[in-house]
What we know:
The structure holds 2 protein chains of 2 kinds. By secondary structure, chain A is an all-alpha fold. Chain A contains 11 helices and no strands. A 6-stranded mixed sheet of chain B has the order 6-7-8-3-9-10, sandwiched between helices. In chain B, strands 2-1-4-5 form a 4-stranded antiparallel sheet. Chain B is globular and about 55 Å long. Chains A and B meet through helix 8 and helix 9 of A and helix 2, strand 6, helix 5 and helix 6 of B.
Amino acid sequence: MSVEQVVHVPSGHEPARRLREALTLLFANKLASIGALLAAAFVVVGVAGSVIVLVPGLDHLYTDQNLRAALLPPLAPDHVLGTDHLGRDLAWRVVTGSGISLMFGVAVTAISMAIGMVVGSIAGYYGGIADRLLSGAIDFTWGFPVILLAVVLGGMLSPGLLVVGIAVASVTWAGFARMIRAEAISLHEKEFVEAARALGVSGPRIIVRHLLPNMLGSTLVLGTYYVAAAIIVEASLSFIGLGAQPPMPSLGQLIATGRNFLSVDPWVAVVPGTAMALIVLGLNTFGDGLRDVFDPRLRRW
Amino acid sequence: MLVELRGLGKRFPVARDILRRPTRWLLAVDDVNLDVHRGETLGLIGESGCGKSTLARLILALVPSTSGSAVVDGIRFPGASREEMRRFRRRVQIIFQDPFGSLDPRMKVEEIITEGLSHERLRRAERRERAKRLLELVELPVTALGRYPHEFSGGQRQRISIARALAPRPILIVADEPVSALDVSVQGTILNLLVTLQRELSLTCIFISHDISVVRHVADRIAVMHLGQIVEIGDSAEILRRPLHPYTQALLSSVPRFNYAPLPPRGEART
């Protein structure tokens, strides 16, 4: 019996090698690496901010008032980024606000991603009547204005991050579901899925074992954009007073506060505004880089 | 009789009216009657698009038929119960053409080839032992267990597919163009492997190909398919020597005369 030559791939710890390759690809794209660094920097800032919010006893950092040192410009002694109208340190408020905004964005995105995965993969894998019903629900939801929903919910309940989160998640899941459905349909045609069906693997198990791992890359890419979008929506709603309630400083809430002092001291709005612009820019360019890494046309795994 | 197809048909809607009612149909498989004996290898030939793959999926019950019936291993379709279906899924397996699309790129070889064993509730070590034996069977090194499909060549991937199909110890294997995506040099080794396994494990095999020169070396009987129907069926030698149906004659005359070297017996390395 003839024996085919076995091609041996250079040994080496497989996951580690893959991670290295992925990082190489990510950093090959200059813009993406800037985005990644930016996003990474804000993750550090965000984690610090979250710690400040969540650990009791640290809130004095961003709530301590000093009216004699109000509206200081950046680079003032003791206040690197200046102070707001109550003399609170802007640097700490931006750090805390970034933490709150990022936590909000990630949490909302995680929830809508989870819902979108369930709905999208069921619709795409099973097709037929289930698909038609769920697709109808997706299209209906996707057409719904988030801001209006938040205003209505905010009027019914009390305004705050929770209400905004519910409003955003109850619309954006449809964005995930739509993409995941399309991916599930194309994966369903793949022969490895047919092979699994021939082996008697059940539908839910095929979804969990074959479909979800193969769409994780594109879902995460979409996720980075949605985190950015959620942060922006929260900021818009904070601007009209529906988002985070003072003294809790989300970025949008900081900008909204600064608006009142634009003519006196624009820094109060510009500093958190810049932070938010950088976060969104970082997340989006990082997402682009991730997409390149996961793009099956560039590599196959 | 392991497989009995009676008037089996499958049609797909190709156009629908405004109420989504189909207005035009494509007859992929049209009134097929076919028997496959236990232990034999039946070659199914025909040009691409003639319905071979749809017929394979019908036999595997991967798609429901739209007319007629199929009895495979004593289980009747349509109408199999859940319990029958579970048994059927272990008894009948398929090997696909595309060695790249048929393996999940995100699973390790060990997971891929033991996927059909989940009903046995094996312990980790037992599962690995089974995986090793399967790799041995398809002549791959055990080091393959922890690797991913993209690290293998087309021929090696096809061996992995074969191992996966053999895992639940099936009695019927449907091989849908198992070598047509491979280099000619590799085709021979995979064909040999299939023939050897078929003998050793006394499998029944339905071997689908558009390439007569491939089928003639593995099949006991040949069925010729054309436009969704089986136009001729008989012993391989007979069909190849004296084709009766004009389509078979056309098919045969289009094949260049090509002589494979006789298959070397198992255990001998070819240089």
